[in-house]
Amino acid sequence: MTTTTIDDLDQTQVYSTKPATLLDFDPISFAEGFDRQPFLITHWLSEHPLFDLDRLLKLAQSLPENHIEYNAGNLPVNQDLKLTPRNGLSAEETIQRIRDCKSWMVLKWVETDPAYRALLDQCMAEIRPHSEPIRPGMKQAQGFIFITSPRSVTPYHIDHEHNFLLQIRGNKKIRLFDGHDESILSHQELEHFYGARSRNLVLKPENAERCWKYELEPGQGLHFPVTFPHWVENCDDVSISFSITFRTPDLERRRAVYIVNHRLRQWGLQPTPYGGRPARDDWKYLAYRATNKVRGMFSR
Ligand SMILES: [Fe+2]
């Protein structure tokens, strides 16, 4: 895989007047890459006032506690999520001191604030015409804002949504791995991810360099296919990134099959991996849905 830079992208456009569109991408790259491989896009959000630190502080103050996750930022690439060290500060202090406090923070589900909802909706409206022919049924659009100190690290992990990471401020180095390569990400790791809800993984030394390498600058964005493993390191400045995500119905089926396989493996069985026999996947999906329905009836 190759190191990619995007020096050739036009960085001259600035947010001096409200742009007609927020995102700009090559339709062919989108059609070829969406949910299959990473590709770069351009956006016009870098100077948007919703991403000023003062505005983000206000947003954090208005969000419920469970919408804010933060911790120390000087982490190793392989980090047990349960043992992630705290930074000893409040969420507000973390934002106010982000330049020096060596921390990592994410504000989750920012669309609960109407201003961020409008921004997210506009982004999704621009993506939808291109994603629908490939993965129809866009739903559950959600936004996450990462506010991180210089040199902080996001450990090696996977995510379960379609994702575009828009770099707003500072530079970020991203290592992104092919989630379709079973020597990098096994079915058992995916079963554990969906079944045990554990996002962090262990990057094997022999796989460390088998990745796409990007350095995102403000104005640039990157598409992460679903469950493609990655880890991230900030450069020498404070970084702010806006992650815009959504789901599609095919992801629910995939998740259900992996959860069923996780359970079967816990019972000592050797389940057919997801995708190995589509008819069997259908049965597992139906069984999962039926079980959940019955559970729902009894819990009412
Ligand atoms: Fe991620």
**What is the radius of gyration computed over CA atoms, rounded to a whole number of angstroms?**
20 Å
Reported for the largest beta sheet, the result is: 8 strands, antiparallel
Q: pLDDT under 50 segments (min length 5)?
A: 2-16
Distance between the termini: 51 Å
Bound molecules: fe (ii) ion
Number of strands: 13
**Percent strand:** 15-25%
What percent of residues adopt helix (DSSP H or I)?
25-40%
Structural class, please?
alpha+beta
Mean pLDDT: 92
Strands across the major sheet, in which order? 2-3-11-8-13-6-5-4
Order of helices and strands: EEHEHEHEHEEEEHEEEEHH
Q: Determine the number of helices (DSSP H or I, runs of at least 4 residues).
A: 7
Shape: globular
What does this structure look like?
The protein is of the alpha+beta class and 300 residues long. Helix content is 30%, strand content 23%. It has helices spanning 27-33, 53-62, 91-96, 114-131, 187-196, 249-266, 278-299, and strands at 3-4, 23-24, 40-43, 68-72, 103-107, 139-148, 153-157, 162-169, 172-176, 212-216, 220-224, 230-234, 239-247. The protein has an eight-stranded antiparallel beta sheet with strand order 2-3-11-8-13-6-5-4. A five-stranded mixed beta sheet has the order 1-10-9-12-7, with no helix packed on it. The chain starts with a strand and ends with a helix. 36% of the residues are buried. The model is unreliable at 2-16 (pLDDT under 50). Fe (ii) ion is lined by residues 157, 159, 230.
